[in-house]
Structure formats: structure tokens, C-alpha cells
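writing this on my phone so excuse typos. first protein, seq and then structure
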Amino acid sequence: MCVKGLCFLAVLCGLAASGVLQVSGMRIYTSGEMEAVNGTDARLKCTFHSSAPINPNLIVISWTFRPLKPGREESVFHYQQRPYPPLDGIFRKRVLWGGDIMGRDASIILQQVKFTYNGTYICQVKNPPDVHGAVGEIKLRVVTTASFSELLLLALAIGGGIALVVIFLIIVVSCRRCKKKRLRHVEGNEEAPRKERKDPTAW
């Protein structure tokens, strides 16, 4: 019985060491796909959850880019104690740090996106000893104009804002009218008794 138990434990240890069995690890969350209009800024959102406490001195974040056409992956951004934007390549002076380490946010911002930015962006986070786990991917599509759904959302947001302002103005005007009616009513009640009084010397 003991021999069987030891064998089972040895198998579990072997699986854990090989990475097949992972009780915990780094989990990364991304949008998967997104669109951005040519010439605008695009926020590539990447958040993570680590099984180990966040250590800002040890955590390492790296972003890489895989183009649509066959080619090698290109470094987009690196973070280790501080942001390291790329010094050369198509992303030079085009990437800003948009994350928050303690907030478990590893997002970056691409400035003035171009059609050459079409492709897959890979977000990887390591927080020693938590260095295992899947990477996050975002497929970016740079378009000439915003899609219908985005335009609809924008129109709804603008329309909703205008509607709120109109409702607010209606409420303010209604309140002022009510106050004026109340004042007139009070003044009318005060003047009525004065008119009814008679001069006691008059016959």
C-alpha cells in the first residue's frame, strides 16, 4: 500500500515538474481582437493575475508583434522596474506605458497607428517565482474609418449626453416656474385681507 502511495506521489511530482500539472500560474487577459482607425491612438489592454504577491522590483512585462505577412516577431515594449520603449523598428517613439503594476495592468498605448501595425500583439508577464502560464494575444486591425458598431456606440453616447442635458434644463425651468407660482400665490393671499378692510371712520 505504501509502495503504491509513493509511486502515485512520484508521478504527481513528475507531472508538476514537467509543467503538465499546474495548480496555479500566471493568468493573462486580453480583448482578443480590436480595431483602430488609421492615425489614432490605440490602447492594447492586458491585465493579469498572479498566484504570487506582486513584486514591482522583479516583475517583467514584454510585448512582441507578429505581422500578418510572414516575418520575424518584433519587440514592441519591455518593462522591468521601469518602462523601456523600443529604440528602433516601426514602433520607435510610438509606444507609451499605459499600465499599473500594482493594479495588475500591463497595458500599452500605440500612438498614431498605421496599416503596418496590422497583426498580433503578444503580452507576456512574469512575476517570480510565478513565471509559467499562457500569454495574452490581441489581433489588431487598422481600418480607414470606424466600423458601424463603433459609430453607433459613439452616436448613442453623444445622444445620451445631450438627452441628459435637456432633461436637466427642463427640471431647472420647471422648478423656477413652480417657485414663481408659489410666490404669486403667497403675495395674493397677503394682499386680499388688506383690500377687505374698511375705514372705521367711514359711514
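second protein below, same order as before
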Amino acid sequence: MTSPKTVLVTGGNRGIGYAIATEFKNAGHNVCITYRSGEPPAEFFSVKADVTDTASIDAAFKEIEAEFGPVEVLVANAGITKDTLLMRMSEEDFTSVIDTNLTGAFRVVKRATKGMLKLKRGRVILISSVVGLYGGMGQVNYSSSKAALVGMARSITRELGSRNITANVIAPGFIQTEMTDVLPQETKKQYVNSIPAKRFAQPEEVAQVVRWIASDEASYISGAVIPVDGGLGMGH
């Protein structure tokens, strides 16, 4: 095994974020998570932080750096949805999703790359969605925020690629989480029928790809969009 790295997963207290944090912990890394509300999981170094607040992000990084040193692997996973059809979508519905999902990613990436530049190495992993490139009914705000992460990763790659820092996008499809568990059976059936693999993914299947893209094996991959969607979006 390679030596333990300091890993930060934003929004790592549930769903895909929790699975990603668990995957890195099981691989022997020092895993830190940020969470916004509720009780944090005890198994990780958890820091309360809000990605829409720069000061709170800075404070979280200081706490992590004091404990483990600079963040070497950043997984920008924190996100929200406010789905509604375009004609009903308020400007606040749009801007609040952009502020969390896109500007939130910018805030944590900007802060993380300070330490990565000093270390002369780093991995930036942005969690997007199949909807980012495929589109989704009632998701103009969410889809826009997730599509923009591709441009972000590719610009970071051009800026920091020579510093041994990679930036990639993981685009999960339908994942079996608390969010999808509550969908009506009929809706779930429609979704499954549209997926070539004919099933939802387990959160661990996304987490394993994230862990791999952060590994030394993937050191020459940057600016890529890696779909984990059972063939739904075909990678675009």
C-alpha cells in the first residue's frame, strides 16, 4: 500500500459522500469530512462547515491541517437539489443550487490547492452527475451546476497540471441511496428501464472509482469525466 494520504470529502456524512469516505478509510488513509447539519459519523475526523461560507471552509481546513497536515486528496461532493420545472423555478432556486454545488466546489478547491502547491502534489475530484451532461426534467439549476464542474476541472488541469496536481470529474448515474429509496416503484422502474445495466448502482461502486482516480495508478489522468452510470449517459 502507498503511504496514507490526508483525504477530505465534503458532505461526507451520508449517501455517496459517506461511501467515498469509508472507501478511503478502509484503504488506510486519514479521512476528514465536512458536514453541514445533524450528527457526524464518529469514524471520521468530522468538521462542521458550510461550503457557501468561505470563512467556515477556511476554519475547517485549518482544523484538518493542524491534525493531519495539508489535504492531498479533495473530493468536492457537497451538493443540494431544488428541482422544479423551469417556468416555476425562482431565481433563488437557481442561484442557491449554483452557490452550493458550483461556487461551493470553487471555494473548497481554491483553499485545498494552497496546500497542494506547497506539497507539489494533489488530487482534486469533483462529484458531478449524469444529469450534468444528459440533462434532467426540472433540473435546469442542478444540471447547470454539475455541467460547469467539467469546465472547472479542465481549467484547473491547464493551470496546475505541471505541478503534479490532477483534477477530474466523476459523474454518477442513479445510485441506491436514501434519496432514491423513497421514489415510487413505478418511477424507479422507468429509471431502471432507461439504464443499459438495468439496475441502480451501489454507493460503493462510485466510491471505488473515486479511490482509484486518487491513486498513483491514475497519475496521468486529468481533466477527464468518468461516468459511473451503467451506460445511461454513455460518457458524452
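The chain has one domain: 6-227. thats all i got for now
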